[in-house]
Structures are given as structure tokens and as C-alpha cells.
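Slide 14.
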Amino acid sequence: MLPQPPFRDAVLRPFDPWRSSLCTCPPKYSFQPYTGCSHGCLYCYATSYIGRRASTPKKRLLQRLVRDLSFIDLTRPISMSNSSDPYPPEEQFYGLTRRCLEVLVERGARVLVVTKGSLVARDADLLSRGMCAVTVTITTMDRELASKLEPRAPPPSDRVEALRRLHEAGVPVGLRLDPVIPGLNDDRHSIREVLEAAHSAGVRFVVTSSYKARPDNLKRMITAFPEMERAWTEIYRVRGRWIHGYWYAPTELRKRMLRTVIEEARRLGMQYAVCREGFERTIEWYSAPTCDGTHLIPTKKRE
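Slide 15: predicted structure.
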């Protein structure tokens, strides 16, 4: 078990507090500079327990971060962030994530940034100096579809450009094609567009997963895409399974969708992994050393 700070208000906590048997991530810490998320993604799972609200900076965050760093295992990765994006629009004003990165890089922490925010490229100078890697979520290259699914996130083309700038600065980068949603972005053309755009920007690793429905996010999805109500109700509520607080689509459907991602990744010579699917740990679903991209983090600082 990872050592953790002995404080009720700790900001560095072991990832996956529910200890889900579906999680295949290596031991790591989770760190969220903000509470809530202004990107407003319809499929967000975190809204079921934190609600839908704009990104709000955590109080006394830097002091708490410095304090917590004295109690954790710094050889383990710190994932920033898993339920609240570290690069929401507010970061342009607050600069909170950048100040946290300055502390983490100075302390020699191993950091994996997970974001939809193209603003991450602003911090290429810091990220390239530290033991840091970045994975960027892109679900579709279709700007219109993305604007409905992720209404306040940057356009997909901006995220690809952020990946390119980070790669050119020497920051290891990966792609999250996540979630793959039945009837929306699961066709081969859509998946190929995302992977080819990311590959052209320097990405050589992709992690992917299927959309898992919760009552609140499924309601939002159906409101935005009413033509999909019958299909999604059948897939999730009728034929699906309720697992650890989510409706999972039938296994064969999930395998079919994610197999397309993996086939396209293989075609491009990219490493791949799936996330929280419960599939067998074989080369069919995992070719990368880790499922989350923490293997991309450099083992030492740049000279």
C-alpha cells in the first residue's frame, strides 16, 4: 500500500480509492489542483459525486502540496488530474497548475499530466525539465461533434497542436481516445482520424476505453443526442451490466469498438492499452508497459 499524508485535507492521495478490480494502473498518486471542471463534458463520470460546476482552485493548495510531498513515496508517479482537468480555461488566469508543476519539478516528482486543455503546451518549458509526461484526451476530430460532447473544452485541432508543441520540446506524449461511444465516434473513419492526427504530432502510445454510463451522464447524452435514446437504452439499460457504479455495454460490443482502435494503432506502429474494461491481460489488448501512460515518464531530469 502506498504511504499517504496523514491529513484529512491531503491533496496527494493514492489513486483509485475504491480499489476496483478493473483498475490495472500501477501504484500512483492522484492530484487535482481544481475542484469541478469547466469543460462540461457530457459523459463525465465525476459529476455523479461532485456535481456539475466550474473549475474552482483549491484553498491553500500550494502549502498543502508542499506539506504532503514530505509523506509520499516520490518514486511513484503523481497523476494530475483524474477527475478535474488541470488545464481548464481558468488556469489562464490563476496559473495554479503551473505553480504546482514548479514545486513538483523542483522536488523531483514523477508527473503524468492528463488533460483536454491545449493550455498545457504553455508549460512545455517546465514539463521538459522535469520527469514529466503528458496524455491528451481526443475523442473525435469532428469539431461540431466535439463541441456537443465537450462544450467548453478546446477544439480537437488545438489539442493536436498542443501535443505537437510538447513533443517538439522533448516532452513524452500520449493519447487518450476515451471514451469510445456506440453510434457516435466508434466508426473506423473517426478513430483513424484521431490516431493519425495524434501520430503526426509525435504520439506513439494510445490508451482507450468504452463509454460507461451513469444515470446522470446518460441523461445528458440522451438530451444532446435524442436520436440515440433507443439504441443507448438497449445497449446500457437492457443488455448492459451494472458494474461498480456504471452501466457497461455488452462485452462483445466493447471489444468490437476497442479492437478497431487497436487495429489502427498497430497499423501506425503505436503502443496501446485499454482502461477498466476487465479484458484479459494479453497482447490483444495491451502492448504498452502500463495502461495509463506512466511508462512515458522519464527516469531522470534533463541535463
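Speaker note: The first strand starts at residue 13 and ends at 14.
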